[in-house]
Amino acid sequence: MDFLHRLETHFVSDDVHIQNFVLHIIDDIHQFVPAEWTERLLKDAIESKEKEFMNLMHTDKLPLNHGAVKTLIQGMKETDKSYLHLYKSLLDNLEPEMALEYQKELAPYIEESGWEFYQLLLNGEDEQIWEEYGSITAKLETERNFNHTLYVRAKFLAKTLIKKGYLDEPEIDLILQEQLEEPYFRFYGIMAIYAIRLRKLPKYIPILVSLLDRDEDILLEEVADTLISFQSDEVVKMVLPYAKLADSSIFAISVLSGTKTAFATKVLKELFHEVEFEDEQDLVFEALCHQLSADVQPEIEEYMNNDPVSFMIEPEENAYGFYKIMGIDHHDLPIWKQIADEKDSRFTAEMEIDRHLSVAEPIQQKVGRNDPCPCGSEKKYKKCCGA
Question: InterPro entries given for it (predicted)?
Fold first, then answer.
């Protein structure tokens, strides 16, 4: 992905606001990020404790290579207990071959059921894999709170089945036909969306776009990631109407933001002047910043001239990150940085209080992307622990 070249010298930075800005861009295009970046972010988390939480919150979907696994092991050994669960959560993305290669070092952090799961993925018979796939997707339906570990396991099983020739187009057709008639998608239906992404099947784009008006955040996460994976102007055209509607705007705008084409930038510029609600304009502004195109400078200037106050995004950090990475001078850069510094200091102080009161646990409950984050930061879940 050519766009990544613009981020390569900034995703680890001495300027925490530039780095945080870039990490939020990476959130939408995580599927294109190389594992080498994960390794660098983990090293930075270990070496720069003030950036540890930030880095770990933005690496949970990134791939792991040998260097990243070694650095992750180092991080788990050296971190204090309040952050250990953040390091351990990254193990959910560990490929089975890699896990077994580092079994001795990882043994203290992975339960026996995890090792059994890796063996199943690598050596299980087709029938056993199907049985486990059915069991896990069924269990996900009955869990009171969203179980991220089980969800990732379901995706590993789906990927294994695809490698074996299953979950092909005819099967996806049958699953979608059934699920579209139901009031909500079951987890095996969500796995079909994931299969569309892995198999790179653009014929399903119209169906995927039609799902954007659903009120099912887990489904919509997969839909958005799959639509972004196509990097298609066809997707942009079809998603645009949903970006104008309050009920579907968050995920629709995230698709536009994650599509790094000139046409997507043009559409976002037009959308900025068309949206009716402040929350939607906040998200479009951020998406424009994330395009890193000189063409969007007038819209960014207009937005910041209105002295925005937003609970959805961080206006000053977005504007600051955009201008700094683009190499464009602006008279308000010192002011934006000062405001971002003050917000960051307040957030850090609150986090330190929480760390001393109790050991944080991973957030597992189902929370809407537009809801306040349960961690108490007063940010939207989309822009905090759900990033």
Answer: SEC_C_motif (IPR004027)
